[in-house]
Amino acid sequence: MCACTPEDREAPAARRIQLDERGWLKTRAGSPASVLSGAPEFMDGEVTPDGYSVNTTQPPWQPSRVPPTRDGDPRATDPKRHTLPPQSQKTIGDTLSARGVTWAWYAGAWNAALQDGMQAPEAPRRIIATRANGAPYFAPHHQPFNYFARFAPGTADRERHLKDYTDLLADIERGTLPQVAFYKPQGTLNQHPGYADVLSGDIHIAELVGLIKASPLWSSTAIIITYDENGGFWDHVPPPAGIAGDRARAFPR
What we know:
The chain is mainly alpha-helical. It has helices at 92-98, 110-117, 156-161, 165-174, 198-213, 229-232; strands at 103-107, 162-164, 180-184. 20% of the residues lie in helices and 5% in strands.
């Protein structure tokens, strides 16, 4: 969304990736000197030593895996638990708005996840990160704009641009889609390995495209369907030399 790496300058040491005296990732005691001698054991982390977030972190507002406090703002998260701090870099949304281009980010199960996240902290989550009882497995870290201060709860930009899948369907039916529409399906329909399947996602997106095709929007609409991680797997070829250690790439677990 911003062609940048999230910043987390005040992250606690326990969250940071540790480097050895050579500047290499530290490994746990007993890890072999070479993979030729045995399987390595990596020391994982969320944040680089110089304060860039490179692994999954939670947004500072709901919906988030980090619940609110009992007596605090239910739209926020518990400040005593680590989340990515609000970001301020320029996003593609900022660029579109500056050019007068209308846009919205639609997310499957967004409204339900908002309500789920604002429950009391001890209440079990029924929408966020769960498939129990047919839940949609809403993934908060798949919602990039919820990390940016411009789209914080209570802002006009949040109300204007962050929408639910039901809003997407209504806008298609009315022919009122913005000039640029982003859509992120709910977890069970996003084809991610581990909690989704390929067929359900294919059927879902085919049905959505069919709705647009049957609407007056079809003659002036371009649809781009994108995937991360090569459809659920790691890179199908080794990355070019010099890229594997780049801070913008997540470290495989």
